[in-house]
Amino acid sequence: MSDFLTMGYPWVKVLHVISVISWMAGLFYLPRLFVYHAEQAGSGNPTDTLFQTMERRLLQTIMTPAMIGSWIFGLMLVVTPGVVTWSEVWPWSKALAVLAMTWFHFWLAARRKDFAAGQNQLSGRRYRMMNEVPTALMIVIVASVIVRF
Ligand code: HEM
Question: How many angstroms is it from 84 CA to the middle of ligand 1?
């Protein structure tokens, strides 16, 4: 198994980075859809239905499969011999930020359900603020894995 992981390492990393880019695209875009949905579309009107379709498709056909791919290929890299040294700081700072990013994904999924039920409680301004969360976490993650402090 470890020979397979060592041989496949570059391609597993390719699949990891592709999954991560797709996941991040959705994590940046979905909160932006929520901003306009909260500000522009009263519950039940045609614009509300359009936003619901866009949000559901983005989450279910892009973001969730990309998150699963990021985790599967990321964990394959974690168990590849010689890739992660747990006595260093970067694997821990990256792991914490990735767990927070995963929480944020499920928070967005719950808000999507609120909109679908006509029960969104949050303002456009609040969604704009939450849109900064994935940016901050991405900076911690990418700095951790490339600078390796
Ligand atoms: C979902 C769980 C994740 C796990 C388990 C994970 C784990 C890993 C591991 C072990 C590596 C290999 C490091 C090496 O080759 O030495 C790696 C590479 C990388 N990860 Fe992740 N990662 C995850 C999520 C993310 C996220 C969310 C991002 C970006 C926002 C990210 C960005 C990267 C990048 C850019 C690389 C390539 C770094 C390089 O080649 O120097 N990862 N990841």
Answer: 11
Helix axis angle for 64-78 and 2-40, nearest 10°, is 150
Element (H, E) at 139: helix 132-147
Q: How many separate domains does the chain show?
A: 1
Closest ligand 1 atom to residue 77 Cα is 10
Q: What is the pLDDT of residues 10-38, one digit of tens each?
A: 999 999 999 999 999 999 999 999 999 99
- Give the distance (Å) from ligand 1 centre to CA of residue 126: 29
**pTM (2 d.p.):** 0.95
User: How confident is residue 40, by pLDDT bands cut at 50, 70 and 90?
Assistant: confident
* Ligand 1 center from residue 70 Cα (angstroms): 8
What's the pLDDT score for residue 1? 82
Instruction: Give burial (CB, 10 Å; 0-12/13-18/19+) of 3.
Output: exposed
Please give the residue range of the domain that contains residue 85.
2-147
Residue pointed to by tokens 């010689």: 82
